[in-house]
Design brief:
single chain, 295 residues, alpha+beta, 15 strands
């Protein structure tokens, strides 16, 4: 924290992550799209950067990733391959509906005709959410967070976190875990069962989210992070969402290369392939210990 007298003029949350597999590094903030330095002056910004580097040396971190939504001009290498996808929403669902293209409206109507329904809640839907999410993460070859992680967020931020589940004849086929702040709500974690994709539950899920949260007073729907040109990026573009670049400034210890700790890195391909073959209960047991060390 940067102080001027008794006045706070800057803050920087840092999380220290370390493991044998991925090394030692600092992130602001892991698991999320943004974090980084928040300062009212350039001097405060420079001070916080300097202190962060000092912390990195103290704990033996190889790098620091500052996840900013806006350009900060810190003089550091910047990763700009990730974007977040934003769409204006309205209190009147009819306005949001008319903004969709004809193809998306047809897909939503088809899903509605098949008898699936959307329900919104909180901790009472956590088991349903985790069952679908953990299954989908295993299918993607990605370690899953612990159920306790999601439960903790719901407990600490009960007024700003929401769960949505899509059901078909009593079976939960799609889920979303959302966080709201000011006029923006973000679908941070969403999944649907591949076995029920013929119902288009993901289409109905996102239409339900747009409609519901517009009526709750939110004005911007954040579809979450994507890589440009990926399948998820194309899916979000279909809704009319526009990309907003993310600027992830990275400090690297001298002599080291810019780290790439993500599924797109070719060196993780074999691990991803093997993870998909593991029994689901094993991924739930092992996964949280691995993913807590990933940013």
């Amino acid at each position: 924290m940067a102080l001027e007298g008794e006045c706070v003029i800057g803050v920087l949350p840092l999380v220290w992550q370390k493991s044998i597999l991925f090394g030692t590094f600092l992130t602001s903030l892991p698991f999320l799209n943004a974090g980084g330095i928040l300062a009212t002056t350039k001097d405060a910004e420079s001070f916080l950067l300097k202190e962060a580097v000092s912390v990195a040396h103290h704990v033996g971190a190889a790098s620091i990733e500052f996840r900013h939504r806006d350009k900060c001009e810190l003089g550091l290498p910047v990763k700009e391959n990730k974007v977040t996808m934003l769409l204006p929403i309205h209190s009147d669902p009819e306005i949001t509906w008319k903004a969709l293209n004809t193809k998306m409206r047809t897909k939503v109507r088809k899903a509605q005709s098949l008898g699936i329904v959307a329900e919104f809640g909180s901790k009472e839907f956590l088991d349903d959410f985790y069952a679908v999410f953990s299954h989908n993460m295993r299918e993607l070859g990605t370690p899953v967070y612990s159920r306790r992680f999601f439960e903790k967020i719901l407990n600490v931020f009960p007024e700003h976190t929401f769960l949505c589940r899509i059901q078909y004849h009593g079976i939960t086929v799609a889920v979303s875990y959302l966080c709201g702040f000011r006029d923006r709500v973000e679908a941070v974690w969403s999944s649907s069962l591949r076995s029920h994709l013929h119902l288009k539950p993901n289409i109905f899920l996102y239409w339900s989210l747009l409609s519901h949260f517009g009526q709750q007073g939110y004005r911007v729907f954040d579809f979450g992070r994507s890589s440009m040109g990926s399948g998820t990026y194309d899916f979000k573009c279909q809704w009319g969402a526009k990309p907003a670049p993310l600027h992830w400034d990275t400090w690297i210890r001298e002599g080291l290369e810019l780290p790439e700790r993500n599924p797109e890195n070719p060196k993780y391909r074999l691990a991803i392939k093997l993870w998909r073959k593991l029994p689901l209960p094993m991924t739930k047991l092992i996964g949280p210990h691995i993913v807590r060390c990933l940013p």
